Amino acid sequence: MGANREYKDSIFTWLFSEPDTLRELYSALEGIPLDPSVPITINTLESVIFKGKMNDISFVIADKVVVLIEHQSTINKNMPLRLLMYIADVYKKITGEEDIYHEKLIPIPRPEFIVLYNGIDEYDDEKTLKLSDAFMDAGNEAPQLELAVKVYNINKGHNQPIAQKCQKLDWYSTFVAKVREYQKETGYDKTGITEAVKKAVRYCIDNNIMKDFLKLHSAEVINMLVTEWNWDTAQKVWKEEGREEGREEGREEGREEGREEKALETAKNFLGMGLSPEQVAKGTGLDMETIKRLSI
Q1: Which end of the chain is more exposed for a tag (fewer CB within 10 A), N or C?
Q2: Strand partners, 67
Q3: Confidence band (pLDDT; 50, 70, 90) for 132?
Q4: Three-state secondary structure string covering the chain
């Protein structure tokens, strides 16, 4: 199994950044057969949709440009707006900046937006998010601008017909499910996540799930997944701490000092988990100088 290293920044993009694999996955999601001769051109942008990690793949298939995203956290309801900005950059890349000023109509591939949800929260098998849901004072008027995002839950046990048509997607969902299963035994700190991923790799190899891929790239898979999941865990913790501070605000004297102490403690924990100083500063609100002192 080869890998398009130019676009690889997560296990998901590593597995699905090959034309043949993308063709199989897209065919399974759409429920339509695609001939192997149907061309696919990957054109993922460097300006990624999620800050801190790359979990998106943009590709042109036949006369469509498809933006495919793996989402491991709670679905962001602003995804249609973020994808509107993303697709504008994709079209700019496809057409060239000067071509749009020509009088002749420029044919462009029809856009399609797909999110594969892989988070731990309960979510429907399928759902559609629309840009128009965010419009203010829309009334009953039909929106003059719309962008729809199809969301599929790819957690193990969901959307089985799709998984049955795409073996790599089924394997990937199984692998992630095993990591989460083992985390209940090993814990959720960096050491626990690392051990859980190692156990999941061994399980999958023993059960002929992504066997060749994992035997060849196990060390990279472990490093990438631990880093990726640490980032998701950190975001969840920051969100929960924000809610807690909101509940306590106005009820405790000296709360500013308490928040600073909590931020310092949180920063130390996340540095120990392997997050970069920039990521820790973004999540805690501490300045880089303070973060660097903590990392010494």
Answers
A1: C
A2: 58, 113
A3: very high
A4: CCCCCCCCCCHHHHHHCCHHHHHHHHHHHHCCCCCCCCCEEECCCCCCCCCCCCCEEEEEECCEEEEEEEECCCCCCCHHHHHHHHHHHHHHHHHCCCHHHCCCCCCCCEEEEEEEECCCCCCCCEEEEEHHHHCCCCCCCCCCCCCEEEEEECCCCCCHHHHHHCHHHHHHHHHHHHHHHHHHHHCCCHHHHHHHHHHHHHHHHHCCCCHHHHHHHHHHHHHHHHHHHHHHHHHHHHHHHHHHHHHHCCCCCCHHHHHHHHHHHHHHHHHHCCCCHHHHHHHHCCCHHHHHHHHC
CA–CA gap between residue 296 and residue 293 (Å, rounded):
6
162: nearest Cα among 176, 172, 148, 149: 172
Could you tell me the pLDDT band of residue 53, with boundaries at 50, 70 and 90? Answer: low
Q: What is the pLDDT of residue 109?
A: 93
51 vs 74, which has greater pLDDT? Answer: 74
Is residue 1's pLDDT more than 60?
Answer: no
Give CA angle at 240 (239, 245), nearest 5°: 100
**Whole-number pLDDT of residue 28:** 96
Which amino acid belongs to residue 277? Answer: P
* Cα–Cα distance measured from residue 125 to residue 112, given in angstroms and rounded to the nearest whole number: 18
Task: Report which residue type is found at 182.
Answer: Y
Are 64 and 111 contacting, i.e. CB atoms less than 8 angstroms apart?
yes
Cα dihedral 131→133→134→135 (10° resolution):
90
